[in-house]
Amino acid sequence: MEEQNNSGAAPQQEQPKVQVPAQPPAQAPARTATRFWLKAVAALYLLSLVAAFSLIAKAEAARKTRTKDVDLSKITDIGKAKKKAVGLIEIYGPISQGSSARSWDRGSQQISRKIRAMAADKDVKAVVLDINSPGGSVGAVQEIYAAVLRAKAESKKPFVARFGEVSASGGYYVGAACDRVVAHPGSITGSIGVIFSVPNFEGLMKKVGFRNEAIKSGKFKDIGSPVREMTPEERRLLQAMIDDSYAQFVAAVAEGRKMPEDKVRLLADGRIYTGRQAAEAGLVDTLGDLQEALDAAGELAGIGKDPRVIRESAPLEQLFSLMDSRLSFGTREVAAALGAVPSLEYRWYGR
To answer: CATH number for the domain including 92?
Structure first.
């Protein structure tokens, strides 16, 4: 009887021991698969970064090739030819101070810093400013203008301005600091003058029942308010400010173009010119494209036409600029519209 009981009880005690370790082996493949996919995603991410950097490097090389087609048969001293070059700095779009210190932003601080860096580069013998801008705020435009004058004085290197599709108002102001100006025959330039725009929503506010109450320390503290009409006294004060900024613009053009101020004032009534009209008026030196500007810079620097070109932006900087513009698409424009305030501008509003 004991043998029968023992033989019958043994299977009941061994059965749970067989079933307990069955669960862990089922979880192992899941963990292995998770690790595999994490590694795969990480590898794909690294490959995408490598591909992005490769594309940017190729684009940079292609731009340099398009800008300058090197003829080795014309080079007598290869070592020296590689060292001498013309720097190219792009000034595109409205000119403003910028909202950050990021190196890939296009604010006046970043552009001024690149002008200083180009002027300090021993390999760069001349600098071309490729300007395609309707102008911008007075302070930002004057910051770039001052950077050009300072770079010219310290480095003794020639500066050439190339006007693209539009180089008006503040865009022309910056170009006036250069030793030579090259424009397309159909470039839009000129618009020499100052503007201070003040919107007036008083009529609309009355219709919707909105009224603004300003508690101010002085009667001019809310000058430029968009919710009330401007007073005659405020208009005279703002006009005096405009006249002073306009006189600064005229003086800058007269100095840069070696023209009497009286003649500049006849041209500086805010009108725009084509590149050909500007050349006839003495506001532009030569009609041509970017290559003409580069050749002019090479000749002024004594290194001849078709010079080697060094651009101001590196591939890594271009990648960050591209990522920043894509990730913040639309947000900057909305923020600028919401926070818009009246500002004194050297700007053409046709663009």
So the answer is: 3.90.226.10
